[in-house]
Amino acid sequence: MAQAKIQAKMNEAAKGGLFSRSMSMADRSSRLLESLDQLEMRVEALREAASAMEQERTCLLEMIQSIQNSQEMHTICDGEREELTLTANRLMGRTLTVHVSVDTVRNPQQEDAMQKVMALIDDIAAKLLDDMESARKRLMALHAACVTDAASVPVDQKFQAMVISCALEDQKKIKRRLETLIRNIDNSEKTIKIMDNQKVEETEKTKSNGK
């Protein structure tokens, strides 16, 4: 009888121990899951910050190039222009020493689509100097495929399908690159017009002096 009671108490204790261990494991699992959730938010914040730094780097390079090709740079004296050019080159060099990269996780379909999109844009960029006006129209059509409000610009449907097949992060990068190329063309065209106007003015002055 006494032995039976002892055995019953041992069984109850064993059950209680198993239940306690089970609760302890659940608590630990919950704490670990909470920690991972917090880490995930920090990882995403890190990626967003790095992506913002990528964009800032691109923006800085573009602004420095814009100053180098600006109208003001062509209307100041040689000494000042030389000093400003040296400063701009120094800033360009320092900016280029900053390397920030955010890799995008892609499945095979997204990887293939991204490679095709970048190859197409690279091909247009390589031919910019041959015909800037034609390249600008082509880039505008590609950019229209990346936005919902494309206005009156014709949309490249084939390119749009490729962009949709890309990862969301890549879609944003594609749009930003197209915008940068279009701005660079606009800035280059302004510089060419300024230089052409200066040549006309110099020619007219030469003719006037000849008279």
In brief:
With 211 residues, the protein is mainly alpha-helical.
Protein described:
The structure is a single chain. This protein has about 210 residues and is mainly alpha-helical. About 80% of the residues lie in helices and about 0% in strands. It has six helices and no strands. The chain has helices at about 1-70, 80-95, 110-125, 130-145, 155-165, 170-210. It is flat and about 100 Å long.
Shape: flat
Order of helices and strands: HHHHHH
Please estimate the helix content.
over 70%
Count of separate DSSP helical elements: 6
- End-to-end Cα distance, whole Å, is 136 Å
Unreliable stretches? 198-203
**Estimated structural class:** mainly alpha
Mean pLDDT: 81
Main sheet overview: none
List how many beta strands DSSP finds: 0
Query: What percentage of amino acids are in beta strands?
Result: under 5%
Radius of gyration: 31 Å
Quick tags:
211 residues, single chain
How do the helices and strands line up, and which of them pair or pack?
Blueprint: H1 2-68, H2 78-96, H3 108-126, H4 132-144, H5 157-164, H6 168-210
Helix pairs in contact: 1-2, 3-6, 4-6
